[in-house]
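ok so heres the complex, two chains, lmk if somethin looks off
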Amino acid sequence: MTLHTRSAPIRVGILLLLLAVLLLAVGCAPRGPLPGQRIAGPPVNDLLELSQDPRDYAAVDTGASVGEKRQSELYEKFLTRFFGPWEMTRSGYAPSEALWGLTRYAKPGFGENTLQRDPEFSQQLRRESRPEAFPSEARRAITLRNTSLRVLPTNRPYFEDFDKAGEGFPFDYFQNSALWAGTPVFISHVSESKAWLYAETAFAAGWVPAGDVAFVSDAFVEEYRSGQYVALVEDDVSVEDPGGRYVLTAHVGAVFPRFGSGGASMAGGYDVLVPVADTEGNAVMKMAHLEPTDAVAMPLTYTSRNMAEVARTMMGRQYGWGGLYENRDCSSLIKDLFTPFGLWMPRNSAQQARVGEVTKLDGLARDAKKERITAEAVPFRTLLHSPGHIMLYLGKREGDPVVLHAIWGLRTESEEGAVGRKIIGRTVITTTSPGLELELVQRSGHDLLERIDSMNDPVAE
Amino acid sequence: MTLHTRSAPIRVGILLLLLAVLLLAVGCAPRGPLPGQRIAGPPVNDLLELSQDPRDYAAVDTGASVGEKRQSELYEKFLTRFFGPWEMTRSGYAPSEALWGLTRYAKPGFGENTLQRDPEFSQQLRRESRPEAFPSEARRAITLRNTSLRVLPTNRPYFEDFDKAGEGFPFDYFQNSALWAGTPVFISHVSESKAWLYAETAFAAGWVPAGDVAFVSDAFVEEYRSGQYVALVEDDVSVEDPGGRYVLTAHVGAVFPRFGSGGASMAGGYDVLVPVADTEGNAVMKMAHLEPTDAVAMPLTYTSRNMAEVARTMMGRQYGWGGLYENRDCSSLIKDLFTPFGLWMPRNSAQQARVGEVTKLDGLARDAKKERITAEAVPFRTLLHSPGHIMLYLGKREGDPVVLHAIWGLRTESEEGAVGRKIIGRTVITTTSPGLELELVQRSGHDLLERIDSMNDPVAE
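and the predicted structre for the whole thing:
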């Protein structure tokens, strides 16, 4: 592996010295944190040296635009996908597909008390899932608030052994995906207790708490599909009704129908429709207003500048595996980012890496790969993929590709061979070789750049 | 410290041998889990040797009963407390009291990515809390589903350093208490975004998500206070309306008004009223039915046998700090357990230890304390307290007090002096010296029996 060399600030030297002392010290001594596992410590150099404002990488238009016609085409596809669940009449899955979690997680995992669960837990989940009765339902619905698609019908977590590097909290394998408020879904199954509903969305499926969705009538569907849509360009936006009453919280990635016949709202901003439940669990529409700083009429023109503006609001948010805590993981970041532009993205990194025009990069030597990327990738448009990870290319810096991504951590290896993670845990801007100044990272041999195996242009014809 | 001696099964010897080998081995070697921190491993002996069915300790009436008159008195007090929030006209707190979290947690804690947060997080919470505007509201409300009282208006967790024994997940210091569905509350403040409401309950206060409560009118209050009440005696009960539609999930500790003029429901079981929200966020009543196996008309006669029956359903549930995941911590276990009997308990262990007639036990030598407890405590009635912990006395076994409690873990100390926790993490029945067969526990000097500093009879006049 070619060491990634760069000018070494004094602090790197000091850091290495401190690390060496630490490693020597903990070799045989009463110990503190296990260096082989979760490594906190100061931020990696990239976070200190690279601007964390995406706009700084979009000062000049980078040619990300696709033109109005192409963007229109893509936007139509987006809407078709988004409302797809309301075109369904029955489940799109076989029972074993929908309830894959019963097989994959049949053995007891580790629970919220960090210990291995009793087998009874898995048995209870099987009973609650009622696989023999799937699919037991066929109704269209919509989410009333930000919620989650769970792999199995429970709010309890499924962890792997906390003692393994990169496992335990917050990696809850039952967390399939966050589901933003106002998402059309198709309900295809009801749990034994009725407390959970199996929801099929346009991009993923899983169990949602029954109270977080409301069923939609034909009339609702017809009115809700107003033909004009508004997307959030800020996170944590409170959506209120005309009386000032709080209805729900919306983040980038959320989409609502525009109310009225287009044209700017009297107050500036956008009048939209939002769903609430009546006392029978059926969806009813309310009017709400979104400020012009919080939302845009879709599709927002796809330019590097606009992408940078939307991305800016998402910077620094903590990493959320499967959207836990309404945070973002690597692929939900990409998906939400593209949404205001009316560009549909699937929910996981492997699928996202296959959208549009794909260029394979595996097998390329490190420097050749670097050159290929920096020569051909389009800032704010090209996606870079490595196994289990996806990043948005932003440009280059001193010959290195620079990316925007939600990253959990970097694999590390101590002198004694203990594997760990140097935690980054947020949406950040780095080179494709973050943390290489750390011996712990170097020793792991897991240079992110070397793991990149493809890049793709998701909006190419 | 006097070693607690008991007959030593062969397995204890093997266990000690294995531990010795392990301790020697990890003294200077590449390592796995840090023995000084979270210790999983096989269950402590008490869990293998003591029946985990409370009914086995109530075969004979233990004299826990208080008599009908006394229980009636206590039940009246319960109802007064339970509905207390609906007698309020304004907040019961000064701003600094209600928003104590802003001071206590002013410094950044550790977040869901396990790293220390930026100061911006604390500043944002201060803005969201609007301390200068407290109290900004004065409305009566009711919870629509099981929810949480948060110390500050956020769903994000506040952890201490994950590298410290007994810290990190799942100890979210922002989790004040679970709040069961159907709990009367008084809303005294609204957050900046309106997404959070400050709710004052009869036993605790904190922030709840706005969508989890609905406001109640005078008419609602009058009808809801039907005069007869039903308590859950099972966990995870699905409550449905007459049309079979799921409304909410109820656990032991939940209370609902009985519908109709008393007498058994036609179907057996109980007709109750449950709250749902209309589209304006106001509470509306629905009828629901509870099975006779899931609920009782309050107050359930207070006998050791009945206490054992209710406790049985709560056994084995994972420990939930502040009711996280709708689990129970040591004091919510006690509070919920006493609820069907109409016996009001405060929400934390220190307060619970002061209810009724208190007998101080600190300063007593270990054996003297043991004798005092086993001589005077009443099974299924007396509470035993140690700092931060509360237990229900069940009787004695071979001279040792036996208790039912929700316990996180036992403090341990490795040979090198590293402090850790042997995790139990559930509602269990043990002696007052669980885990003493483990050297790691012995060395810590934290024998639970020695830490018991008082006992109290919560129903004494």
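quick notes: The radius of gyration of chain A is 23 Å. thats all i got rn
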